[in-house]
Design a protein that fits this description.
This is cysteine--tRNA ligase. By secondary structure, this protein is an alpha/beta fold. Among the domains are: about 190 residues, Rossmann fold; about 60 residues, no CATH class. Helices cover about 50% and strands about 15% of the residues. The chain contains 18 helices and 13 strands. The protein has a 4-stranded parallel sheet, with helices on both faces. Strands 3-4-5-6 form a 4-stranded antiparallel sheet. Strands 10-9-11 form a 3-stranded mixed sheet. A hairpin with a 2-residue loop joins strand 12 and strand 13. The longest helix is centred in the middle third of the chain and has 26 residues. The chain is elongated, with a radius of gyration of 27 Å. About 35% of the residues are buried.
Length: about 475
């Protein structure tokens, strides 16, 4: 019998990337709600600039968001409500708050009275005077308390509006989330998430208005993800260091970006650098190559002929990985530790595939099968399993060529030139070609069968990583 976990989300990195998958793995039935704010001051302003309907503008960007989430292997929500479709729910909740004496009206506007909620600030621990008045809404001197926030805004020229008991208008930002969460999850549910910037005042206001509408309102866990920094500076349009998911995945595999993101604990700031995303891409290629090579070997042996046992060393390696993985994931979703736990079983796979001692090990095929299954299970929980390892490796190579501004034929030509130089004992020329390719992230690998190439961290970035403390 499964338990039920419900969650409301504005934007929550942990939920979108792996918490839903992990809870499903543990046997919970997850009701995952992700709402879209399609009625908002900034949206209206942007729509007016573009001479476009705000709702249509929002819908277009919601569709683009869906594409980005699909690229990153984020599970879709159970339900995905939009503000414009839930005006009756919003109006009903505002009326409940008014009926309970926790809000007041002024000329068609409705404001929540924070003085009526003594526990205001209990989530963030901040005081009323810390409220960031005017951040999303203009300051209104008519308010009884400067911290009071809008539940309903009277209609203004050039803005969409809906009819209400207080006149035509539209909802305030905060009430939207409370009304939609109550509509799909009730007033009490398990997890509510968002960015750390939403703790105050947005989530603080959600708590106040939800409790004002229903005294039994309660959320068991609030979880907030850290900011994304660019070279140790917060990502910001004003700083000119703002970029989109599409810009990143134009040069890097989407799952390399996913691996990079879950390589940092969700509550910590994520520092995006070229060196970091290169490292994630390199690691992803290593993981997929090991698993693909393992699948090739396994396909050459009849599964029915395999024995039911594996060597003690392999069993110990698998058990250690599973223990570390589950403990770290259960410890506030500590994904960096879970990823690090894969190192030993991946190393053992490569030993069994490529070393003389590994190839001679008893029950080698059984070990490979067990290790491949174990690693894949971990990758599934983290959302890192591609459609096929072969296809993903090809895509990683294509992205590497694009970053290097080379074609496959040009790399092959360089390999041929190097082979010729080596045959002619022109070793300086041979080394120069290898270094030239390494500088742009193309590593050459020599074997008795010939020379091949694979993506790698560009040489300058490798040297930078070695030099840094």
């Amino acid at each position: 019998m499964t338990s039920a976990i419900s969650a409301m989300l504005v934007f929550m990195l942990a939920l979108m990337f792996f918490i839903g998958r992990y809870l499903n793995y543990l046997g919970y039935e997850v009701n995952y709600v992700r709402n879209f704010t399609d009625v908002d001051d900034k949206i209206i302003a942007r729509a007016n600039e573009l001479r476009e309907d705000p709702i249509k503008l929002s819908k277009r960007f919601c569709e683009e968001f869906h594409l980005d989430m699909a690229y990153l292997h984020c599970l879709p929500p159970s339900v995905e409500p939009c503000v414009s479709d839930h005006m009756p729910n919003i109006i009903d909740m505002i009326q409940q708050i008014l009926d309970n004496g926790c809000a007041y009206t002024i000329n068609g506007d409705v404001y929540f009275s924070v003085d009526k909620f003594p526990e205001y600030g209990k989530l963030s621990g901040r005081k009323l005077e810390d409220n960031r008045a005017g951040e999303r809404v203009s300051v209104d001197t008519r308010k009884k308390n400067p911290a009071d926030f809008a539940l309903w805004k009277s209609a203004k020229e050039g803005e969409p509006f809906w009819e209400s008991p207080w006149g035509p208008g539209r909802p305030g930002w905060h009430i939207e989330c409370s009304a939609m969460s109550a509509a799909y999850l009730g007033y009490s549910f398990d997890i509510h998430g968002g960015g750390m910037d939403l703790v105050f005042p947005h989530h603080e206001n959600e708590i106040a208005q939800s409790c004002a509408a229903c005294k039994k309102s309660n959320i068991t866990y609030w979880i907030h993800n850290g900011f994304v920094n660019i070279d140790s500076e917060k990502m910001s349009k004003s700083l000119g260091n703002f970029f989109t998911i599409r810009q990143v995945i134009d040069l890097y595999h989407p799952l390399a970006l996913r691996l990079f993101l879950i390589g940092t604990h969700y509550r910590s700031p994520i520092n995006y650098t070229i060196a970091q995303i290169e490292s994630a891409s390199d690691r992803l290629f290593y993981i997929y190559q090991a698993l693909y090579d393992s699948q090739i070997v396994l396909s050459q042996h009849d599964e029915a002929s395999r024995k039911d046992s594996i060597p003690a060393g392999t069993a110990s390696c698998i058990n250690k990985f599973q223990d570390e993985f589950l403990v770290s994931m259960s410890d506030d979703l500590h994904t960096p530790v879970a990823l690090a736990a894969m190192s030993d079983p991946l190393k053992l796979i490569n030993d069994l595939l490529h070393t003389r001692k590994g190839k001679k090990q008893g029950l080698r095929i059984e070990s490979l099968a067990a290790l491949e299954k174990t690693i894949t299970s971990g990758l599934e929980i983290l959302g890192l399993v591609p459609t096929s390892y072969e296809e993903a490796l090809h895509e990683l190579r294509e992205k590497a060529l694009k970053r290097a501004k080379l074609t496959e034929d040009q790399v092959r030509q360089k390999i041929t030139e190097r082979d010729t130089a080596r045959q002619n004992k022109e070793y300086e020329r041979s080394d120069a070609i290898r270094k030239e390719l390494a500088a742009v992230g193309i590593a050459l690998m020599d074997s008795p069968e010939g020379t091949t190439w694979r993506p790698a961290i560009p040489l300058a970035l490798q040297e930078e990583q070695v030099a840094s403390p």
